[in-house]
Amino acid sequence: MKKIAILQSNYIPWKGYFDIIASVDEFILYDDMQYTKRDWRNRNKIKTPQGLQWLTIPVDVKGKFDQRICDTKVESNNWVSDHWKSLEHNYSKAKYYKENRDFLFGIYKQAESEVFLSKINHLFLLEVSKYLGIKSKITWSMDYLATGSKTERLISLCKSAGASHYLSGPSAKDYIKEDEFSGEGIQLEWMDYSGYPEYEQLYPPFEHGVSILDMIFNLGSEARRYFKVVK
Question: Which site among 84, 105, 140, 159 is 20 to 30 Å from 46 CA-CA?
Fold first, then answer.
């Protein structure tokens, strides 16, 4: 049995994203798809005393309506210092900020030299997965031969990767044709993001849908206890 998941890369995503990585043998970054504006590809949320705040990587999209995520470039590397200043300002009083500051700052310094958004996202996903003890293989959709559109393309990726099981996020229920997976001998499963426990978080009220960095700063290595799969 081999289980895979296929998702577009996100910038420092929330805990559910890492749980789905941990739930599979291979996690495929679906970044040869069209870049979408005002999405999770280049931004995510953190908590502040004034409420939620977006951390956004500025990318070059003007006039490039059909460009793929993997071809999307950052406009400059100024975002690195801006994002780190926001994190320092809003999380310096978190319980595990000092313990994890150098680790996370090191990732940001590596990201400073990257030109492509996908590579930046990939870097954070790899390093945070290691921190959480997630051992799933992370690959690119570009590494495989895939044809068709939507469901057909996902099935093609599954077959190319040798998958017997496909784990999908619940939002894909709007377009995935389940019978086509079963027709190809691939068992389709759905990720359940409900029922996560709350933890001690700065700036109430509690918010589940923020960047994983919130858990790292507030919980440190204990963050694993608040996942469904990562333990």
Answer: 140
pTM assigned to the model: 0.95
Q: Can you tell me whether residue 171 is helix, strand or coil? A: helix
Q: Hunting for tokens 């809003």 — which residue is that?
A: 90
Tell me the C-alpha distance between 222 and 231, whole Å: 9
Question: Could you give the percent of the chain with pLDDT greater than 90?
Answer: 88
Question: What percent of the chain has pLDDT above 70?
Answer: 99
Measured between alpha carbons, how far is 4 from 158 in angstroms, rounded to an integer?
7
Res. 145 pLDDT band, cuts 50 70 90: confident
Containing 168, the helix (H) or strand (E) segment is strand 165-168
Q: CB neighbours of 169 closer than 8 A, spacing ≥ 6?
A: 5, 7, 20, 190, 191, 193
Residues 6+ apart with CB under 8 A from 120: 11, 57, 74, 111, 114
Q: 32 Cβ partners below 8 Å, 6+ apart? A: 68, 69, 70, 140, 141, 142
91, 202 Cβ separation under 8 angstroms:
yes
Apex CA 190: angle with CA 133 and CA 224, to 5°?
A: 20
Contacts of 96 (CB under 8 A, 6+ apart): 216, 217, 218, 219, 220
Closest CA to 210 of 33, 29, 46: 46
Report residue 191: phi and psi, to 5°. Answer: -75, 135
- 3-state class (DSSP) for residue 227: coil
